[in-house]
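ugh ok so i messed up the first submission bc i forgot one of the chains. this is the corrected input, ALL of the components this time, i swear. 304 residues overall. if the numbers dont match what u have on ur side tell me asap before i send this to the collaborators (the ones from the other lab, u know who)
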Amino acid sequence: MSALTIREAAPRDLEAIIRLHEEDELGSHGDAWTPETKPAYEAAFAAIAASPENSLFVALDGDEVVGTFQLTFIPSLTSRGALRVKVESVKVKAARRSGGIGAQMMAFAEQEAQRRGARMLELTSNKTRKDAHRFYERLGFACSHEGFKKKF
Amino acid sequence: MSALTIREAAPRDLEAIIRLHEEDELGSHGDAWTPETKPAYEAAFAAIAASPENSLFVALDGDEVVGTFQLTFIPSLTSRGALRVKVESVKVKAARRSGGIGAQMMAFAEQEAQRRGARMLELTSNKTRKDAHRFYERLGFACSHEGFKKKF
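and heres the new structure output, hopefully the right one now
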């Protein structure tokens, strides 16, 4: 592949980002880009863009969006007041998986976290995503926690 | 116990909050309230207070701080742009555990999340905290995810 570019997402990337979410049936989040859902995605995109503590990124191969992830910087008292970073909504285009895109995105996330003074990256991954878990452990993540969710 | 009060933490609560963290050896976060660590906690407290997306709470029995937790409101594209809430740094005073304080704090967290329009609560808990996991499952949380951390 050509060199991957990772940059903050712009409004023009939104449809391509949601198309990556659409490919993911496992998450069961019901994501799809339609005239009905578009306003909710646009509102969420605007909320992320307006937040100093959130950044949404895209990975591009040439002009094609092939990956995305979000970083949330969380000030915290734990660990002597350490800033922590949550990695959220990590997606790689289905046809391009196992090609190193995820690893480049995570390396970028780690650099960005360190640049902003954070001392930890964290993320949760659905228990059924065994390949993803091996991937994160190869990158030096410890699978030390259980992840709980409660939907309303 | 007398009726529990849950409110946003004020600067005067900071030492009592960190004393709750101190009691927790399992987390291995090295938290302790000392002249050396105080400035870092004060800076983190100020960062949380300044963030519209973070709120730190204390649970009080009379004047005594018996519990604490933090909520982080995270705008997200996933699930059609759903706002999610991360519950972080949940601590109950050791001598007061199993007395319903945690359940009252989580009920408050859920109300607060719903009041602000969120559609999900999430949290991670160290895999060794089996009692906490049963507690969260009783409250309707699904243990659906693995939680990964990478410290720098």
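quick check: Residues 77 and 83 of chain B are 8 Å apart (CA to CA). that seems consistent at least. Chain B has a mean pLDDT of 94.
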